[in-house]
Write a structure and sequence with these properties.
The protein has a single domain, classed as Ribosomal protein L30/L7 (Ribosomal Protein L30, Chain: A), CATH 3.30.1390.20. The chain is an alpha+beta fold. A three-stranded antiparallel sheet has the order 2-1-3, with no helix packed on it. It contains two helices and three strands.
């Protein structure tokens, strides 16, 4: 069974570079304080690492 993680957008990206704005959008986040559940992968971890100051991440038990 694949590991799942919950990503929550916690801080506004006002004043952040355009690449970080696009990363938030590519994670599937549209509104502040929205959460999405995604399958854990190295690519996803790289995106999260790029915007780690804007999101919070937690493991989801299935």
């Amino acid at each position: 069974m694949a590991n799942m993680i919950k990503i929550t957008w916690t801080k506004s990206f006002i004043g952040c570079p355009e690449t970080q704005r696009l990363t938030i959008k590519s994670l599937g986040l549209r509104k502040l304080n929205q959460s999405v559940i995604r399958q854990d992968s190295p690519e996803l971890r790289g995106q999260i690492n790029k915007v780690q100051h804007l999101v919070s991440v937690e493991q989801v038990e299935q």
